[in-house]
Specification:
The complex is a heterodimer.
Chain A: E1 4-14, E2 51-52, H1 54-65, E3 73-74, E4 77-80, E5 90-93, E6 103-109, E7 112-125, E8 129-132, E9 138-142, E10 149-155, H2 162-178, E11 191-200, E12 210-215, H3 218-237, E13 246-250, E14 255-258, E15 271-272, E16 279-280, H4 283-291, H5 297-308, H6 312-318, H7 322-334, H8 340-358, H9 369-380, H10 386-397, H11 403-410, H12 418-431, H13 433-440, H14 446-457, H15 464-475
Parallel strand pairs in A: 12-13
Antiparallel strand pairs in A: 1-10, 1-11, 3-16, 4-5, 4-15, 6-7, 7-10, 8-9, 11-12, 13-14
Helix pairs in contact in A: 1-4, 2-3, 5-6, 7-8, 7-9, 9-10, 12-14, 12-15, 14-15
Chain B: H1 5-15, H2 24-41, E1 62-63, H3 73-78, E2 83-84, E3 87-91
The chains are: A alpha+beta, B alpha+beta.
Amino acid sequence: MSWEVVIGLEIHAQLTTQTKIFSGSSIAYGAEPNTQACAIDLGMPGMLPVLNEAVIGKSIRLALALNAEIGKKSVFERKNYFYPDLPKGYQTSQLEYPIVGKGHLEIEVDGEKKKIGVTRAHLEEDAGKSVHGIVPGMSGIDLNRAGTPLLEIVSEPDMRSAKEAVAYARKMHELVQYLGICDGNMQEGSFRVDSNVSVRRPGEPLGTRTELKNINSFRFIEKAIEFEIERQIEILESGGKIVQETRLYDADNDVTRSMRTKEEANDYRYFPCPDLLPVMITDEDIEAVRAQMPELPDAKRARYVSEFGLNDYDAGVLTASRQLAEYYEAVVSQTQGKDPKLCANWVMTDLSGALNKAGLSISDSPITAEQLAGMIERILDDTISGKIAKQVFDAMWKGEGTADEIIESKGLKQITDSSAIEALVDEVLANNPSQVEAYKGGQEKMLGYFVGQVMKASGGQANPGQVNQILKAKLSD
Amino acid sequence: MSLGKTEVEYISRLAAIAVDENEVEQVAGKLSNILDLFKQMEAADTANVEPMAHPLDQVQRLRPDVITETDEHEKLQSVAPAAQDGLYLVPQVIE
């Protein structure tokens, strides 16, 4: 009998604000320890938190994108536990009245679409960091991160494989970046995925779950979940029981390991935070955010197919990040939409290839969208061939100027003068009498050989269409 | 409802409040009284009552997303029990 895998994800997305959720301290990454932790963040007596208005609009954006209910009245609660990186002895979070309610996200795995439920997303503050090994017997505490605004996005246990879980996580990662609410930087911990994994016999109640934490790449999340599924099935099939616990993934050995389990269940003793009043969101607030919503990835993909005539795959690649999509759209619009498919090819192959090789992201591209569009214009008006364009592209990449400047200075203009091409054709045919014989004897594939020779003789600059035409005419004489 | 010694010890551990051995019985009695009070209140029908989030009938004021706090860690750390290299020091936390 088979096992059914049940996975739910909790994603912590750090919101892209300037300051903390309840204080005016900066949240910039990488500052010297405790230089961005004020008396409010430290929970000094008498300090009062005041909510950062920016987190409200960003939460509404996510709610709209997930077709989720919006908590028009949301309440902050205290989640009580003791840990040195939590200076107040509680984390300010939300429980009964989260800012984002039930919604969903559609994923696609192996061509199959599936709706994954989002239970809720709530606002909360991040904790600080413990640093070990500085003074023997002591731990150092850096509270710069304490109070950083997070949206914790909780999914329904709707995923049935590691693949689905990662597809959902990637989709959410793409979405929060499109929405401009989170920078998605997994290395710096701006986007953290915790996976709850369990297995059961189909139709039976949920099995005991384990939680996989602190995995900062999608590839490792998938591997960790896969390992965990195998581990749980092995235990159950040999008559054992799963212990509810948090497990960490060891990438070097591709296994998950138990974090020390707490013997007693945590009792967080949630209660409404008396320092904060309920947050009210009006219809006007929601409409104001709706008016500024960017086009979302799914809508963009569909439009690339219907408006630009791209295939699903290309549309998917180009919309994988908002920056790439914006770059592509700029190239299309600056070439007046004459050939979106050609623009897609240049952005996806040559440009993306060069960026990958140089380890650059699209926002650091040495070739601007305007420059690339300028070059594509010259392909479209037959000034250069696609092959010569590659030379122009390389020169633009090296910063040698615009396409027009490079074509001019390197003399790359395509030869479209038919008498010049005719001369080249005559020369090639005269130099290859036996091949001409063969062609005339029925070996029509020799034509390709002649085209190659003429192109070579022209330094790649002859117009290939004209070369073909003239060759055929001359050979049929 | 009456709480025993084990429950009191468990709750005090969760709350990180030290309860003296000879106080346990007294604390157990007090906590039991509070729970009895809850029991009494449970009798009230609250089906149509919205839970109160805050005794003040007001709405949270918001703050613009602007940096207003400057680095005061030296001052703040001067009152900390121990600090070094900009870090607050606490008894070692075992992960």
